[in-house]
Amino acid sequence: MSRLTHTDEAGAARMVDVSAKDESVREAVARGRVVMRAETLALISQNKAEKGDVLAAARLAGIMAAKRTAELIPLCHPLPLSAVAVELALGDEAVEITATVRTTGRTGVEMEALTAVSIAALTIYDMVKAVDRGMRIEAVRVVRKSGGKSGDFAQD
């Protein structure tokens, strides 16, 4: 039986062979946030940032990044994604980011969801950094995963 590991017998990095695994519907949800000053949130909510619509750019960047995860993360499998959604919500002190990614395949989409959140957060930072250099990207994590041999996972 093949072991699921990213190292071979000699300890060298390798891509895990998932060819013996069954295909199944897989979904992952990741979240994160960009904490910023109230004035910066107001600029975003009123669509007055100098670089344009911050939320629209971040949403598109997150979706595009999820689709390119295998090019960004070493040893990550390229996957045919069936759906990618990036939701952005303005909180009291942060833009909250949630990415949901789905596929039917032999391996999960946790990395794609995490990549979508991370790139959306970096896009937000880039678009308003001139007015708020103290922003923080925080709490990027997988909050839910379903499908596959390892079963379901959920946390808040």
TrEMBL record:
Task: Please give the start and end residues of each transmembrane region.
Answer: none
Keyword Lyase, does the record have it?
Answer: yes
Q: Which UniProt keywords are given for this protein, alphabetically ordered?
A: Lyase, Molybdenum cofactor biosynthesis
What EC number is given for this enzyme? 4.6.1.17
Q: Which family does it belong to?
A: Belongs to the MoaC family.
Entry-linked HAMAP family: MoaC_B (MF_01224_B)
What NCBIfam families does the annotation carry? moaC (TIGR00581), PRK09364.1 (NF006870)
Q: What name appears for this protein in its UniProt entry?
A: Cyclic pyranopterin monophosphate synthase
Q: Source species, please?
A: Acidocella aquatica
**Lineage of source species:** Bacteria, Pseudomonadati, Pseudomonadota, Alphaproteobacteria, Acetobacterales
Q: Identify the coding gene.
A: moaC
